[in-house]
Specification:
Radius of gyration: 22 Å
Order of helices and strands: HHHHHHHHHHHHHHH
Number of strands: 0
Number of helices: 15
Helix content: over 70%
Length: 257
């Protein structure tokens, strides 16, 4: 059954099964790796063979990681990104990507299996990130929280960035402790920097991660009225990271307390 017919049925989950079935209609030639199929998809895109490119992106997303488990991280980054680029020029690709995203989330809501919930929400967040819809991820997490806090806890790590971006602090505070988040980032940075053989560029990445983590969690504490904890965290953070821009941002934030 074609996926367009499934939309008319009105069941998003049924539509997902139809997408999977249509994805199986196209298969790569024997011996072709998912990486090679991805290269072919980009070539089709560049040559404006959009329907062919869509079939390959669809197969890569649904089955590429089954052909090669190592491909999974590529699937939720380059494959989703390429599919989204295609969607900007080829409306059927946009419609199918949205349908897939919504179907994945409906499965998350209806499932009690940890693997299905985590993998499904990861796909949702990846598609939202590629399409610029982090607000959709925050709303999806809120819906999941309303349905099952136990299941929502499983995916808080996947939703955290979107929730911070949307300023959904009260909900976030049910699942994370902002002060502890800063301490974990500090520990990771300090432990990594103690290895003399690590490249300086990598150490800077950990420092930047600490600064970003500290700043957004201090903002959260301030927004929730946790002023004494925010002041303590700010003082400790500027002692840990003396980056000028970071210190300036912290000082500007704390002046308002």
């Amino acid at each position: 059954m074609k996926w367009r017919n499934c939309i008319e049925i009105g069941s998003v989950i049924l539509a997902l099964f139809c997408i999977q079935a249509s994805g199986q209609e196209w298969k790569p030639m024997d011996g072709k790796t998912p990486e090679e199929v991805l290269e072919d998809a980009y070539e089709d895109y560049s040559a404006k063979r959009f329907a062919e490119a869509l079939r390959k992106f669809e197969w890569l997303f649904l089955f590429g990681h089954k052909a090669d488990p190592v491909f999974d991280s590529v699937r939720i980054s380059f494959v989703v990104g390429g599919w989204n680029d295609l969607a900007e020029k080829y409306p059927p690709a946009k419609a199918k990507l949205k349908l897939l995203r919504d179907a994945r989330f409906e499965l998350v809501l209806k499932s009690n299996e940890k693997e299905t919930i985590v993998e499904g929400f990861r796909d949702v967040a990846a598609i939202d990130f590629a399409t610029g819809g982090q607000a959709n991820t925050a709303r999806a997490f809120t819906t999941l929280h309303d349905s099952s806090q136990t299941n929502a806890k499983l995916v808080i790590g996947l939703a955290k960035d979107a929730l911070f971006a949307e300023g959904t602090y009260s909900l976030l505070n049910l699942y994370i402790d902002p002060y502890s988040e800063i301490q974990v980032a500090k520990k990771q940075m300090v432990e990594f920097s103690q290895h003399r053989d690590r490249p300086e560029s990598a150490k800077q990445i950990f420092q930047r991660k600490f600064c970003e983590t500290a700043l957004r969690n201090i903002k959260m504490m301030k927004a929730l009225g946790m002023n004494s904890k925010a002041i303590q965290a700010a003082r400790e953070s500027v002692e840990t990271c003396k980056d000028d821009a970071f210190v300036s941002d912290i000082n500007a934030l704390m002046q308002k307390i």
